[in-house]
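Good morning C.,

I know you're traveling, so I'll keep this short. The sequence:
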Amino acid sequence: MKWLELLTVAGATLVAAVTVVVLYSLGVRLTAIAGDAEQSSPRLTRSLAILCFGLCGLAVLYGLYLIIPYFSK
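The tokens, ready to paste straight into the viewer:
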């Protein structure tokens, strides 16, 4: 078995999973902050939240592109 390739795939999977979770969590937190009444710029905060959700969705779509053989031909 090729152990280096196994460790490479495991590391890439860990980094990708942490990235998706952090982006989603940050988007949820920014959405909650934007809903506060005393927030000075809710439009900027909500825009950053939408950006985080969009990047999270792009990461998921890229993962699906890599997994589904029909798209990678």
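Safe travels,
E.
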